[in-house]
């Protein structure tokens, strides 16, 4: 690497840090090398590094939402044994996992005897809401 290239790289990383674009800062050189090898123009390169930044931000935001929710144990509806609980309305539960009721600000109470999977279903719905970008608290 030549001295002007090193200086430009250091300045670029400094500017990216100031702009709070950490993923672009870490991935820019790798993406630049791939773009040069594939003969991608500057707009294609910029698109690729911006996509990396967005994907990483979405991933970190999802992790923060899951951590803030304080789930006792991660549960999903795929893990729930509907066959063991035939009284549970599977189509309704799967429909509720879509989260339409959240936008309408509707309550969805859970009632039932001990051991019927209420906590599992509530955790699974809350995790589905986190995946949809909603903040939840368990």
TrEMBL record:
InterPro entries: IstB_ATP-bd (IPR002611), P-loop_NTPase (IPR027417). GO terms for molecular function: ATP binding. It comes from the Bacteria. Residues 15-138 form the IstB-like ATP-binding domain. SUPFAM superfamilies: P-loop containing nucleoside triphosphate hydrolases. Gene3D superfamilies: P-loop containing nucleotide triphosphate hydrolases. It holds the Pfam family IstB_IS21. This is Mobile element protein. It comes from Fimbriiglobus ruber.
């Amino acid at each position: 690497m030549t001295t002007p290239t090193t200086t430009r790289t250091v300045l670029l990383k400094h500017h990216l840090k100031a702009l709070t674009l950490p993923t672009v800062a870490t991935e820019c050189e790798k993406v630049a090398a791939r773009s040069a090898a594939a003969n991608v123009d500057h707009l294609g390169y910029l698109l690729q590094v911006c996509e990396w930044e967005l994907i990483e931000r979405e991933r970190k935001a999802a992790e923060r939402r899951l951590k803030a929710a304080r789930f006792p144990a991660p549960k999903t509806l795929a893990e729930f044994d509907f066959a063991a609980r035939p009284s549970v309305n599977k189509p309704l539960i799967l429909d509720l996992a879509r989260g339409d009721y959240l936008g309408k600000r509707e309550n969805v109470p859970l009632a039932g005897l001990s051991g019927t999977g209420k906590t599992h279903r509530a955790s699974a719905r809350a995790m589905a809401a986190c995946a949809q970008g909603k903040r939840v608290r368990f």
